[in-house]
Amino acid sequence: MERKFVLRGLASGALAGLLAFVFARIFAEPVIGRAIDYETARDTAQTALARAAGQLAPPTAPALFSRTVQEDIGIAVALVVFGAALGALLAVVFTLVQRGSGRHLRPRALAVLLAAAAFVSVYLVPFLKYPANPPAIGHEDTIETRGSLYLVMQVVSIVAMVLAIQLGRVLARTRGSWQASLLAALAYLLVVGTTMAVLDPVHETPGPLRDAHGAIVLGGFPADDLYLFRLYALGGQLILWSVLGLALGPWAERALRQSGRPVLTRASAPG
Amino acid sequence: MTTPNLTANPPVETDLTEVVAGVAGALWLLGAALFGLLAVYFIGIDQGMTSVFGHTLGIHEFVHDGRHFLGFPCH
């Protein structure tokens, strides 16, 4: 059964990644292209300014892959493999929960609930503090700091989500599921809210580039493109997690039925 | 007087196929978790803030757009 769940998780995740790629290729890639154009224009302008001031321009690194490879194949491989990885991880959690605390839930409902909890804790909440950025945003020198901050935000959010769900289950015994769910959600928000307030902010969106006299040589990063990129990044994750959750559940139910195990359905569910 | 019964505790019968199935299942879960974490690491983080194969950029540049799109701090 573990083998079947894992293989179905991998397949669901790869499918989710493929659909996210189609979305990204149509909507996000034009924005990424414009962001790279801005980055190039900014590099050129900075080199010209440095030359005018009699300084040496910093060397530019040669491109390893063409843009065509990056925007057609690179991102497709990245999203499909990433989707499969999420599918494998969700299948592990699903397998463990399905035979434990999630027994009384129908498998397809459990898969969707787990995927939703994972989407909120793994992506949505860290995104609110450290949103996705297109190319041209972020200094190369601060990658370690930004990477660590994002990772800390993710880990706190995931641990808080797991603990909040446990808290909700304990509270549900005495207070009923409505109050227990609200209190658990409140506890989660308190923990991640405090963490967001404590962690350092990151403000690295390039502003206007000025010459020695203060005249603007190149404007700041286009605000509309920043908004669109973040919107599409969020949309891509929504596709990834919802397809994953919706595909894994029914596949897992079929695997359970084939092995002769009873599957809780509406007809057999108590009450 | 009766002789002490030396076989008072008969050995517990273990169903070997069940044990094998349990171990195989655990290994599948472990393997899946390992693959998931490694894949997320290489697509999202490696050759950025840390790098396991030294200062190379092959993976970083190949998955470049995906890394940005998935929300990882890139460069």
Write a structural description:
The complex is a heterodimer of chains A (271) and B (75). Chain A has helices spanning 2-52, 67-98, 107-129, 143-198, 223-258, and strands spanning 209-210, 216-218. In chain A, a hairpin with a 5-residue loop joins strand 1 (209-210) and strand 2. Chain A folds into 2 domains: 1-58 and 67-137 and 209-271, no CATH class; 141-204. In chain A, strands 1-2 form a two-stranded antiparallel sheet. Chain A is built from 5 helices and 2 strands, in the order H-H-H-H-E-E-H. In chain A, helix 3 (107-129) packs antiparallel against helix 5 (223-258). The mean pLDDT of chain A is 92. The longest helix of chain A is centred in the middle third of the chain and has 56 residues, at 143-198. By secondary structure, chain A is an all-alpha fold. With 75 residues, chain B is mainly alpha-helical. Chain B has a domain at 40-75. Chain B contains 3 helices and no strands. The longest helix of chain B is centred in the middle third of the chain and has 29 residues, at 16-44. Chain B is rod-shaped and about 65 Å long. The N and C termini of chain B lie far apart (86 Å). In chain B, 33% of the residues are buried. The mean pLDDT of chain B is 83.
